[in-house]
Amino acid sequence: MSKLKYLALLPLLLIGATLRAQHGGDLQAQIVYAFHTEDNNGLEDLVQELRAQVKTEAADAALRYDLAHAQYRLGLLYAQSHAHDPQASFAGCIDELKAALEQDVKSAEALTLQAACYLELAKQRKLQAVILHSLALDRLNAALGLAPRNPRAVYFAAMDALDRAKPGSAEQQRAFAQLQLAAQLFEQASATRDDAPGWGHAEAYLALGRELVSRHDLLNARNWIEKALIVAPDDKAAQRLQAALLSH
Fold first, then answer.
1. d(Cα 57, Cα 54) in Å, to the nearest integer?
2. Domain formed by 149-248, architecture
């Protein structure tokens, strides 16, 4: 292609890139909103729509990431409500990201989300828990090696460490400090990016709020829960925790 022809096409290429980015941002918003409002049916519909797109289109890594993200969120809702077995959702998330990582082996975001799905699947498959947890840590460590200050990678590493640490131990203190760091990194990051994943803020703030409640630091707990609701006003989990604190 000649330079003149390329320059003539450049505005159209830029518009196309902008529309694709906006589409990704819209999908993120739909997935996160359905999760926060605990809308199983809405997430199921999104998963079906994205699966159809992956089958009929030349699925790029971004589309597979969105499908994996929706499956991860749906699995969390299933596990919470006990409405369905969440294993298929977490396993589907892992498989979609395997395909995405074949296109970009150094995607910290894909590695982080896949780690999250491995961690959740380990909770469901007790006999395979050790292997699945090891795979999760491999992905998380790889993600943190590529992007040490990625807020989602720091958050999931902190939550896993908190889950496994003994109360009052040095490991628990380190995990708590890591969760605080994740919340700070989320505060510095955009929650509304269209061109890259921008989710996790509300979850990190709420997790920090819960941890502070367990430490009887109710004033700071309320502050972080309020921050979660500023980011995601319809987050039912944050609403419930806020109401519980206000009733005391």
1. 6
2. Alpha Horseshoe (1.25)
Let me know: does 195 contact 24? Beta carbons within 8 Å.
yes
Alpha-carbon distance 37 to 28, whole Å? 14
Q: Which residue has the tokens 């006999």?
A: 127
| 3-state secondary structure labels for all residues of 11-44 | HHHHHHHHHHHHHHHHHHHHHHHHHHCCCHHHHH
Supply the CATH classification number for the domain 21-146: 1.25.40
Per-domain boundaries in the chain: 21-146, 149-248
Of 117, 113, 34, 121, the C-alpha closest to 77 is: 34
Q: Which pLDDT belongs to residue 194?
A: 52
CA geometry: angle at 89 spanning 175 and 120, to 5°?
A: 20
pLDDT at 168: 92
Q: What is the pLDDT of residue 192?
A: 53
